[in-house]
Design a protein that fits this description.
By secondary structure, the chain is α+β, with helices and mostly antiparallel strands. It has helices at residues 16-28, 44-53, 65-80, 101-105, 111-120, and strands at 2-7, 33-38, 58-63, 90-95, 123-131, 135-137, 140-144, 148-150, 155-156, 164-168, 192-199, 216-224, 226-230, 235-240, 242-247, 250-262. It is built from five helices and 16 strands. The longest helix is centred in the N-terminal third of the chain and has 16 residues, at 65-80.
């Protein structure tokens, strides 16, 4: 059985056409299932447990990266605690709205390709990143503010003031050939990459850089299995599929082959 977790903001007028189109596509492809509306106060853990007891095996986030992150972490937290039994569960995303790095990492940048992937049920095992033993991420964790990558006996940061540190599982930087880094960011190689980068300042009316990692320069890349993100502050803001505020230092590690996700037939490294 399919379980669709639909973020409540998808009911806004600007998303109605996409939602109507999605309902039609799911019906036409025989992909009916239970639909659960999410809001800030929804007891997601209880819904997941109830659906598993009633036969749900495929969990689908309908929304954006934050929607997918919320569902993913609830599902894996309950699995880790042994509350869902020994069965394997599939994870999928049907993208609506902006902020779709997870859907793109599954090769499903649009609703049409995502529904087709759901119908075909082609799956792939993904490594995941884990922050402080409690928050999983699929794509990358970007740390804002002054921070350093801490190894066993030394740490690395940047001499620039505008740098950011991202610990990546997938490629969030666009075309890597311009950096000479084509071999990084494999979602199933058992490693993550710590990337120090800084924005390319573009001239324009406002004189600001565009808010995209594709408009960043990569300064350094460090393949890793686990590291510590250090900061002089007690807490640090991090965007790890969803925005979080975490106590420092932040322990980051890779969890190999932790997630079986439904992916498009092509385009997933």
């Amino acid at each position: 059985m399919y379980a669709y977790f639909i973020d409540d903001w998808t009911s806004e007028r600007k998303h109605l056409r996409a939602v109507d189109s999605l309902d039609l596509r799911l019906t036409q492809n025989g992909l009916a299932g239970r639909k659960i509306k999410l809001n800030r106060l929804h007891d997601l853990d209880a819904s997941v447990r109830d659906l598993v007891e009633n036969g749900a095996r495929t969990f689908v986030a309908v929304g954006n990266d934050a929607t997918a992150s919320r569902l993913l972490n609830s599902l894996l937290k309950l699995e880790d605690a042994g509350q869902l039994g020994a069965r394997k569960y599939l994870f999928a995303v049907l993208p609506i709205g902006e902020g779709q790095q997870i859907a793109r990492s599954f090769g499903c940048a649009g609703l049409e390709s995502a529904v087709l992937a759901l119908k075909n049920r082609r799956t792939k095992l993904f490594d995941l990143g884990l922050l402080n033993k409690r928050h999983y991420f699929i794509t990358a964790a970007t740390f804002y503010g002054r921070a350093a990558v801490g190894f066993l006996s030394y740490s690395v940061s940047s001499l620039r003031d505008d740098y950011e540190i991202s610990v990546c599982n997938t490629n969030i930087f666009g075309d890597l050939k311009k950096f000479g880094q084509q071999d990084f960011f494999n979602v199933s190689d058992g490693t993550l990459e710590a990337v120090i980068s800084y924005p390319i300042l573009k001239s324009g009316f406002w004189g600001k850089a565009e808010d995209s990692k594709e408009n960043y320069n990569i300064e350094s890349v460090f393949p890793l299995v686990q590291i510590t993100i250090q900061s002089p502050a007690k807490t640090i803001k991090v965007l790890a599929d969803a925005e979080k505020e975490l106590s420092t230092p932040v322990a980051v590690e890779v969890v190999p082959a932790r997630l079986e996700a439904i992916v498009a037939a092509a385009g997933v490294k």
